[in-house]
Known about the structure:
about 180 residues, membrane, Uncharacterised_DsbB, protein-disulfide reductase activity, transmembrane helix, DsbB-like_sf
Amino acid sequence: xxxxxxxxxxxKWPLVAMTLSALMLAAAHAFETFGGxxxxxxxxxxxxxxxxxxxxxxxxxxxxxxxxxxxxxxxxNVMIGLAFIVGVIVAFYHAGVEWGLxxxxxxxSGEGPIDPLVIRDFNEPMHVPSCTDAPFYxxxxxxxxxxxxxxxxxxxxxFVAAGATWRGAVRPEETA
Length: 176
């Protein structure tokens, strides 16, 4: 428990959140590269959340080093949590599309994977994978569903870190 508490103190949680985001992106790219699972437009949208979160966190930590105020770090942790909530929404929307509960967005009806090594006529329409077909399910959840669960856990941890920082779990030499 002390290990978890120490991760949520000071500037450690933004680094952990950024690392977990990079690992989620690495896993997605591994499924694509080694597993042959071409991403649909909603899969790519889920990745955009993690890329944005990494960019925002790097920028926030650089600014925090320039202006080391506790309230700035609290705001950064809250923004990280909000970014993860966006990830939850996108992931669960994708899972809802896969289950047939929600309509797929325009351009998600796909007719097969794109082969980047095949040179095609640019006047022909591009075929993208369908957003409605999950490649597999684990414990009833697709990859999009699990992405939503993981992003939800990370959002809660971000808000807990913001609360711990707000209560003063940062460097004692700082003033609010």
